[in-house]
Design brief:
Blueprint (H helix, E strand, L loop, with lengths): L1 E3 L11 H10 L5 E3 L4 H4 L9 E5 L13 E5 L4 H11 L5 H33 L4 E5 L9 H7 L6 E6 L4 H9 L5 E2 L9 E5 L16 E5 L5 H14 L3
Parallel strand pairs: 1-2, 2-3, 7-8
Antiparallel strand pairs: 3-4, 5-6, 6-9, 8-9
Helix pairs in contact: 6-7
Amino acid sequence: VFLESPGSLTFEMQDIPAIVSACKKRDLFTVLDNTWATPLGFRAFDFDVDVSVHAATKFIGGHSDLLLGLINCNEKTYPRIKQMWRDTGVTPSPDDCFLALRGLRTLSTRLSLHEKNGLMLAEWIKARPEVSEVFYPALPDDPGHLIWKRDYQLATGVFSFVLRETRKEQIARFFNALTLIKMGWSWGGFTSLITFFEPENLRSVSRRDFNGTAIRLAVGLEHPVDLIADLTRAFEAMSP
């Protein structure tokens, strides 16, 4: 059973202990994408997850100069993972390993700032009249907040919000007005990145009407005052 909590676009929280418990009763393995929280934010093996994977390109690398993935496994799954690694011959370069180790040295310091900046921006964006909803588990009124507070040690600065206005020309003006925040699908580096998506088109099981275009913001390490000023220009550019 593959898990990702929170989801990387609409940020629903999964009850991982409950899912893992159900899987154990059926002798099923659980694999968790733990990239958003990192091992510092969610200790996967304390919750009996079998395999925890990370896009080390993101927070672990931290400098937008690394392409690397990590697979962490428990004693039960280690022989299978090791055999897969041997069969596929997937071996990172020494330089990539060096960059990941470099990133680990500053991970705790960077994440504390990502979280601080992320919470500040999420609260500010939520108060904007152009925004109908913010998806960020660290916010007290988020549907997944209680699960996040129970199981997680921190929140990182990646979240999404829904615009009330969905006309393409206004959304284009929003993005064109940004100068500090760059457009991009990745996250976890020192630079803030932003992208947009249509939530309804990405859901294959449960359905929900989001009533708008969603934007995902990955808050970097820039000063939050500068980020707010950049977003203010973007929101004001949407006005007719």
